[in-house]
Amino acid sequence: MQVRFWGTRGSISASLSAADVRGKVRRALQQALAQGLTSADDVDAFIDNELAFAVAGTYGGNTSCVEIDAGGDDYILCDVGTGVREFATRGLRKSGPGRDPVYNVFVSHVHWDHIMGFPFFIPAYIPGAKVRIHGCHETLEQAFRTQHSDPNFPVQFDDLMSSIEFIQLDPDQAHSVCGVTVRAMKQRHAGDSFGYRFEKDGKVVVYATDSEHDLGSTAEIDDLVGFFADADILIFDAMYSLAEAVSLKEDWGHSSNMVGVELAQRAGVKHFCLFHHEPLNDDDAMSEIVQETRRFAELSQPEDTVELQVSAAYDGMEVVL
Ligand SMILES: [Zn+2]
Ligand SMILES: [Zn+2]
């Protein structure tokens, strides 16, 4: 399986400003002055090997949308935040003349940042295109319809030309989609959210965003560790620092990097991926959080266990399992 991140920001989209871009260009050029670069190849190597990601790239600003490519003819998407517009623009590898893919969407919950990209999801407008929206909330269809209704949006839901089906999932049962086994788990969040565990051919992807965790509850920890068990990648809501999560922003419905590392290590996860980034954090702040999380993971790694890989998802990131 492959995982592609089309939107990784939490709560609201956050784009770079002209001043942000200028700052990156200035730092790159300053660093390049001493390098004596003379060719395009030198420039590429300098960008790839010498510049920090916060200078050469960006974590991006689109809200939640993650593609899980299980290799078949159909698509699987987790959430349809603003990142789904990018997916529809650049990610339709399986579409085109003579092809008839199904777009399977799994919705963690219907807070606006997780569905706001759908009105700009081009396949929804294509006659005959098959869109299946899966979720555990009874309000799933109503939320999508309301978003398209007057005066929120000019195109009404019933005027969309594709064939759109809503599929209510039972979190207590395993489901099979595109040859992938999918399980859902209810999470602690305003109005509830649901994490999804995708398994195929011994590979496991867990998408667990918009969730706060109570590490004081043994039962809750056991449930989470079981749900995350042996995941090849755990995509985890680490919106806040631990200090924020246990003080000012307690009960705001999101978790922290430290809590995530602890759960991931207990569950034997291989790759822990920070997700749902706080819009206030710029690229430097994000890189600092990644470094801090890696230091914590090294210190807390239990003996005789495989080292936990730690990264922060960015828009455009691809992970091959
Ligand atoms: Zn969210
Ligand atoms: Zn939410």
Describe this structure in words.
The radius of gyration is 20 Å and the shape is globular. It has two domains: 2-14 and 58-320, 4-Layer Sandwich (Metallo-beta-lactamase, Chain A), CATH 3.60.15; 18-56, no CATH class. The strands form two sheets. A seven-stranded mixed β-sheet has the order 6-5-4-3-2-1-14. Strands 7-8-9-10-11-12-13 form a seven-stranded mixed β-sheet. The mean pLDDT is 94. Strand 10 (203-208), helix 7 (218-228) and strand 11 (233-237) form a beta-alpha-beta unit. Helix 7 (218-228) crosses helix 9 and helix 9 runs parallel beside helix 10. The protein has 321 residues and is of the alpha/beta class. It has ten helices and 14 strands. Helices cover 30% and strands 23% of the residues. Bound molecules: zinc ion (2 copies). One zinc ion is lined by residues 10-11, 111, 113-114, 210, 276.
